[in-house]
Amino acid sequence: MKKNSKRNNNSRVSNIESNSVDTEKGKKESQNNFVDLLPPEVTFKIFSQLDVQSLCRASMTCRSWNHVIRNNDSLWKPHCLTLRAVCQREIDDDVESGYPWRVILLRNYQKSKVKHDWLSGRYSNICSPVSLPEKIMYPMDADTWGEILEAEMER
């Protein structure tokens, strides 16, 4: 009987210890998460200093960061305006259609990279379609191909 009561006391002690460890762990996690502690304006200022890749990586850090980054359209707007230098028509059409800035960036990011390479002459000396890097090519509409053809004709 003493053994049994000793076990019960040990299990109670371990339950109390595990609960206090869980509470401490929760406190540490919330203390380490500046998004929950700082005013939204300060959090925005911090996240607005990140480039596109870092912003995407930060959004994968935890749920609260993802929520803040994903739902703050102002964080994505400057990056879209940077892409606009290459994809003005595409960005303007998406803005006019009412897409959020984050979605506009997702729709045009890869296209802008490929279009920039074409317009800057990276593929000017390609002898055959086999020479094109298939994995990075992006489907483009007729207007975009028209812009690329004009740039090639000017070279």
Automatic annotation (TrEMBL):
Q: Name one Pfam family in it.
A: F-box-like
InterPro entries from the UniProt entry: F-box-like_dom_sf, F-box_dom
Q: Where is this region: Disordered?
A: 1-29
Query: Which PANTHER family does the record associate with it?
Result: F-BOX ONLY PROTEIN 48 (PTHR12874:SF9), F-BOX ONLY PROTEIN 48-RELATED (PTHR12874)
Quaternary structure, from the entry = Part of the SCF (SKP1-CUL1-F-box) E3 ubiquitin-protein ligase complex SCF(FBXO9) composed of CUL1, SKP1, RBX1 and FBXO9. Interacts with TTI1 and TELO2; when TTI1 and TELO2 are phosphorylated by CK2.
One annotated GO biological process: protein ubiquitination
| Domain (F-box) ranges | 32-79
Q: Which GO terms describe its cellular component?
A: cytoplasm; SCF ubiquitin ligase complex
**Record's protein name:** F-box only protein
Q: What is its main location?
A: cytoplasm
Q: Which UniProt keywords apply?
A: Cytoplasm, Ubl conjugation pathway
Its gene name is FBXO48
Q: Which CDD domains match?
A: F-box_FBXO48
SUPFAM superfamilies documented for this protein: F-box domain
